[in-house]
TrEMBL record:
This is ADF-H domain-containing protein. One of its GO terms (biological process) is actin filament debranching. It comes from Tulasnella calospora MUT 4182. GO terms for cellular component: actin cortical patch. PROSITE patterns: ADF_H.
């Protein structure tokens, strides 16, 4: 069975390095479908994202889908901290139809790649269609409870 979208080794290695990195704050690994090459490729990485997620929102295009893997910090009511992986499927409503179709067909492939590369499951995934209004600290943190 052939895949429509390929995953280069560089992306696998990049995800592995992202997951294994030691960090103090919230971080994000952003990937996109390259429509011309039919591959998923790394777009950018962000470290020490503020809790208002402003830096992340600025990096995400208003009219093009992205896959975002977040290394999240969740503080439990008893003071414990956990570090779940959150997968955000950024699918703004103004995206080009052809690219959205490729992106949607690659979502499960990318999710499985994250699980393999990170050697752990994704805690939760969320689809954001309504832009920055849907991407808030409270929305992401609620996934972890």
């Amino acid at each position: 069975q052939s895949q429509t979208i390929d995953i280069p080794d560089e992306l696998k290695q990049g995800l592995r390095k992202f997951r294994l990195a030691r960090r103090e704050g919230i971080a994000a690994f952003i990937a996109k479908v390259n429509k011309r090459e039919l591959v998923i490729e790394e777009d950018t990485r962000l470290e020490n994202i503020s809790r208002d997620l402003e830096e992340l929102i600025e990096e995400l295009p208003e009219s093009s889908p992205r896959f975002v893997v977040m290394a999240w910090i969740h503080e439990h009511s008893d003071g414990r901290k956990s570090y779940p992986l959150i997968l955000i499927n950024w699918t703004p409503s103004g995206s080009e139809t052809g690219l959205m179709t490729l992106h949607a067909s690659a979502f499960n492939l990318f999710q499985n790649l994250v699980v393999i590369a990170a050697n752990r499951t994704v805690h939760q995934s969320i689809e954001i269609r309504d832009g920055e209004e849907g991407l808030t600290f409270d929305a992401i943190d609620a996934l972890c409870t």
